[in-house]
Amino acid sequence: MTKPGKRRLLILAALALVVGIGLAVAWQASREQAPSDRLTLFGNIDLRQVQLAFDQSARIERILVQAGDRVEQGELLATLDDRRFQANLAAGRAELDARQAALDRLLAGSRPEEIERLRAVVEADEADLTAARLTYQRTARLARQDMASRQSADQARATRDAALGRLHADQQALALAIAGPRQEDIAEARAGVAAAQSRLQLAEIAVADTELEAPADGIVRNRILEPGDIASPGQPVFSLAPVEPIWARVYVDGQDLGHVRPGLPATIVSDSFPDQPVDGWIGYISPTAEFTPKSVETTRVRSELVYQVHVHACNPQGRLRLGMPVTVHVPLAAEPVDQGADPCP
């Protein structure tokens, strides 16, 4: 090739390089001036975890699920040896029955038959007193005439006084039977019944606590204790991951934060199912900034301050799992979803 031809090729290459640099600078400037209509974020799947433990201390009798099992709310997961708690429950019921019977007896008052019996006793006491008085009067008159000994008169007077004392005592007993129990005694009996009811409720709660149920739908992540182990309130038996809510924890830099608002729809794509995106929506935006976590891949410098965002996900097939890395696409021009209704189809 002649020298003029080589010079022409060099000029064309230089022009192409200048044009390319110009186009790149213009594209970067336009990107900085006007944001894209879609925001791409990176993060990991997150969800709540529940440590399930018994409220009582006893030996574990049965464990009904394995790690990885899917459980429903209210499903029985494990039980304790409840013999001690059942015995306390039976004692509480017996005590309540006894307290209630004592209160019922006070409220019912004296039986009519008891009152009639006391009336008959009083009438007999009155008759005995009349006879004792007559005997004393005759004996005292004879003693004054020296026809009876002074000792006989004293004995007759003592018999009269004893009859009078019995009459007064039986009259008081009759008055108490008619009046019924004191209000203070009834109040004390009522308090005893209330205390027994409270102890019975505690015994019933203790028996119910020997069964461990799932508080929500979820997946058993870990089975920590086994049958025969001693359970206690501070020792978890299972680690449960509720299936809802589940979200992608992503991070937005300050430049893009103004374009993100709660309720915006989003699409979540995982590396495990790249062709099966999951629908979601932005549910939480952190009010404070933080440095970008090292585990998150971003297109920005890692040292920049970012804001944590939760993108709630619809996960009917359970494809999203704890810790799974995901990519989230947020269309900025979309209308927010109604979070009061169920956003998942």
From TrEMBL:
Cellular location(s): Periplasm
GO CC annotations on file: periplasmic space
Ranges of residues in domain CusB-like beta-barrel: 245-330
Domain YbhG-like alpha-helical hairpin: 80-208
UniProt keyword annotations, A-Z: Coiled coil, Periplasm, Signal
Keyword Coiled coil: yes
Domain of life: Bacteria
Any single Pfam family the record assigns to this protein: Beta-barrel_RND_2
Family the UniProt entry places it in: Belongs to the UPF0194 family.
Descriptive protein name: Uncharacterized protein
Taxonomic source organism: Halomonas aestuarii
